[in-house]
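seq as requested:
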Amino acid sequence: MRCVFAILFSLIAFSSHAQKQLVFLHRESVIARFTEGDYFTCVLKTGQKKEGNILSLGEFSMITSAADTIHFLSIRKIKNPKAKKFKISGVPALMIFSGLGYIAFDQINSIAGPTSGRFDGAYVTALSLASAGTAIVLLRPKFIKVKRGVVMRSVDYKSPYYLSN
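struct tokens:
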């Protein structure tokens, strides 16, 4: 019976143990979040690029799987965890769809009506609009600069910035 209580107590203790998270805040909003075990890539103020899995988060530093201790104050840029998602939205989407939509609408009009479907100056404008939108989507920065106003915190389950899975 004691063995059952010991097992139950240890399961409860391990399930209530929370991981620490590294949170980057800008104007009270979270711009990046990393937990212990996440792959982390950063550029230090000395220009060195450090990467590896986060093994341990301390108050002012972290330890990665490459046996590096990285102090939070020495980080210049971090890799954006949201950058790997290819997502078209906002102004670039409007530019792409309006440029291609104009060309498609003009082609439908030339099929249905007596107008000619020649390539003229309007097509150049529409294609340049669509290509500018595509360039904006493809050239989004993959790194976030840790500039003035960005605060790095190592938080635990008591913090309001902690996100439980």
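The chain has two domains: 2-83+141-155, 91-138.
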